[in-house]
Amino acid sequence: MKTKFILLTGLMMFLPGVKQLEALPPPQFFTTYQFGSDYSIPGSAFTRGRNGQLFGTSYSGSGNGAAFKLTVTANYSFDISLVHSFAGGSDGANPYASLIRDGSYLYGTTQSGGNGAGVLFGVKMDGSDYSVLHDFDASTEGANAQGILSCVSLSSLSPWGRALIGTLSTDGSTHDAGGIFGAAISNRMVIQTFLPHIFDGTDGKF
To answer: Quick check: 171 and 206 in contact, CB under 8 A?
Structure first.
């Protein structure tokens, strides 16, 4: 296949009316923002907001981690602003996974804080109305949420409309191989949590 492609390309160079392709310039890389002690260890991917805004999390800095917003400015640069600074207590600590957006709200998880096993939280994109939706219980559910959440629609037979689905790197079973958790939500409140699957080490492990 490679030989045929080269031959075809060579023939096209001599066909009348066929414009030769020009080589593209190499990509240009530039630094938009230099992270420091204010937002350190930003390990998550960005979540798109409105008008070019980007939302992310930092594992540490600004207390015990933060959710932040990047707003595009001129000359390929960004202004950074705080959405929420985690105190490390009941509000959670050390967010690792990316945020997800649902309307004007952002949802995410922390690895620690709360009861010690991390929390599921929601916050408006402007930083207001922060709330802990669920405290993880390490003995019965698991802890250390690290994967990005997914928002799914539940069956019409369910009394709840949607659920946030995520993963925990440890669980309360004897296998301690991690698990999948779900949180049915309605009006930004968790109605019920459930564990669709607990890994036993043979079907997967963190």
So the answer is: no
Torsion of CA 167, 172, 174, 175, to 10 degrees: 10
Q: Which helix (H) or strand (E) holds 5?
A: helix 2-12
pTM of the model: 0.75
Task: Choose between 158 and 46: higher pLDDT.
Answer: 46
Joined together, the tokens standing for residue 68 give 């932040």
Cα dihedral 61, 63, 66, 71 sign:
negative
**Helix, strand, coil shares of the chain as percentages rounded to 5?**
5, 40, 55
Q: Answer for the pair 142, 136: CB distance below 8 angstroms, yes or no.
A: yes
CA–CA separation, 145 and 64 (whole Å): 15
pLDDT digits (tens, 9 = 90+) for 35-58: 766 777 777 888 998 887 899 999
Q: 100-123 b/e with 16+ CB inside 10 Å = b?
A: beeeeebbbbbbbbbeebbbbbbb
